[in-house]
Specification:
Length: 152
Amino acid sequence: MKKDMISHHDQSKTPPDVAYVQGEIGIPLSVRMERGDVFAEQCPSRQVLKHVTSRWGVLVLVALAGGTYRFSDLRRKVSGVSEKMLAQTLQGLECDGFVKRVSYPVVPPHVEYSLSSLGLEVSGKVEALADWIELNLFEILEAQAKHSQNSP
């Protein structure tokens, strides 16, 4: 086994009879799943990444960082999102544990959405990305214009 193939995995958590080599099939699932590998096609972190970094996922997380919203208020805040896409986005983020959904037993239905503690943490990460994009938008737009001029 080549030393450069050995991962920086915590060897104390690996059973003594199993060598940890990145991508090796003989590694117990519990060890392989300790930390996701976003570059692996079947890693569950890919679906989470998709939910968090989609256009609507980013905007919903940033909006909810400002507080609790009802569905219709959130839809107005995230201009341009359809009801269907907002519902799908909220479901995905709720499933991942980032969004809390509270439904009140009244007529008409009253549902509120807010961020969980995990959601607050991830919203800070994507908000930083959104802020960076907005701060550098002029330079990005210039690069896009230059690229489109040079493309056939």
